[in-house]
Amino acid sequence: PSVSAGGQVVFSSKTVNRNVWSVAVDADGGKIRGELRRLTQEAMSNRDPAVSSDGRKVAFVAGWDTPRAQLRIRDVATGKESPLSGIPSTRDLGYPSFSADSSKVVFRAIENARPSLYVVLAAGGMAERICENCGNAPAWSPDGTKIVYDRIDRRRYVGLLETATGRTTQIVKHPEYDFIQPQFCPGDSWISFACMYQPDRTRVMVAPFRGAAIIPESDWIAVTDGSGFDSRPRWSPNGNLLYFISDRDGFRCIWAQRLNAAKRPEGPAF
Length: 270
Prior knowledge:
This protein is mostly beta strands. Helices cover 0% and strands 47% of the residues. 32% of the residues are buried.
């Protein structure tokens, strides 16, 4: 704001418009196959997009951080959007993720300041709470029997939820670091996550998955060097490429890193 000697006040008002976009890629090769395409058009904050494994559906949160927040499913071929019903009434929905067979969506809902996890059929229906006060950024295992998530308990750790029993276990934790955005590798034998070791510095890491047991730090493999804020790692279908968001060049961009058979970085990120 600025105030004149005569008492006038001038100020600016800004509306943030966040939309979902897509681009066709050779997912295993990390090569662009088409032009950027804007999927949503509303003057609101649409965020946390997730694409189904068959590429036919996109789930996202529409009107994030408003009383009218919705979890929507978009048909990629027709452009038709359907808000899912039976969703908890909260202004803080987030992190939808499709099951491997694209039939279900798990998501986080904040209720009474606690992050609960819900599952709903992608075709619609009533959402079912599967874990109360669990965490954020849930992601399915390929066989649909497990979900990984991140959760704060002094430090942020990676947790594992067994969907049949509701049992939860901490599998990645450290007394000094926080961990976010865990994901299963196709094949169920590895997971990825981002390690926050400074407020503005993170490293993307992978580690062998051994079920409901702590993965020791000695087994973690650093995929990025931590020179910037690297986050949201996502595996390619064959598990040999890891996509992630990074601001290492001064802009927030999508990068990828090739991995060898031992899941160690091979060549530079691009």
